[in-house]
Predict the 3D structure of the following.
Amino acid sequence: DAHALIPPRKNAKPWKDQKLRSLERNELLKTVKRLGRTLWKKWSGYHRRSLVETKMHCIKLLGDKLTARSFSSQVNEIHARIAVLNKFTELGRPHTQVVT
């Protein structure tokens, strides 16, 4: 039995009918309002999902297809792309030092 993990709109109002999907959505609205949107995303796992989607988008920016034919070569190609992304991330991260 799957449940949707989609955050409601910020101006969402409860639905008035008593169908099961409406009751689940209304309960979700109450939970988001009680916890706050940011905490709800972390509590529900939605935050991790959005982080993974962002990382997959970055990987696909380097090419959405693999050129290698064998599986082991495809794995190596993906590892190379991830190494490039990690290097770009490292270059874009600020380096701070404590000044006394």
Notes: The two ends are 58 Å apart (CA to CA). The chain has a mean pLDDT of 89.
